[in-house]
Write the structure tokens for this entry.
Amino acid sequence: MSPPLIFDRALMRRRLSRAAQSSPAEFLIAHAADDLAQRLVPILRSFPLAIELGGVTVHGARALMGSAKVETVFRLAASPPSGRCAFLSAVADEEVLPLGDASVDLVVSLLSLQAVNDLPGALAQIKRALRPDGLFIACLLGAETLTELRQSLAEAEAELSAGVSPRVAPFADARELGALMQRVGFALPVTDVEKLTVRYGDAFGLMRDLRAMGMTNPLVERARTPLRRATLFRAAQIYAERFADRDGRLRATFDLVWLSGWAPHASQQRPLRPGSAKTRLADALGVDEIKTGEKAKP
């Protein structure tokens, strides 16, 4: 059974290419790349071959190049990098990865996987491509991302139009993503969230940045007619009324959800079998054990 088509992938590739050729807004991907570099520091092993998967820009590949733990970096993305780079690259789609089984040691993806139509399938391909004890690290946009813009557009359309059209893409909840990592079969999965707040003078500044990041509406079910001018200005007014700080600047929320997991290997820690403990919990806590059916002593 094919997954539902939520995102127009061809449209996304065109918009990302257009953004890369102009003046891209890079603050979000640069922040994620800096965080990635810090997350690699405490890991006590090296990675002979690392894949940077589907990055909006080359920031992720450069972060990997700067790590002493990574030997070779190969970037797979929807469009080739502009200019000369110190890493290898090829054009590829995150939904159909050109990677052999157990062929790479590290796979990294920054701000890309939230927009694939078959995320479980993409994660399964990544796990299959990792060598035993290989590592996967990704940063995805989470559920509360752009919640202010979503609410403002929906209310403005409800007031001035016949109905509400989806204008901001849906993003997954961090707990759901963590459960998905376990279901796919990653060992020792970890999920954490950073809530990043960016402030703007008005809602149009945020919209310009989203266009410069290639992040405008990619939904298959989007309205094919442009948003009416009156609706757009009403949305900006609602945004300013509801989400302004005391100094008048407007908040825009970006949930950065970090996922990490390892391809299973015999050397990794595993939970003990039930009943294999050698110390009673009551002894560890320094209390008397109450057996089933007994009542606590007064």
User: Anything to note?
Assistant: The mean pLDDT is 87.
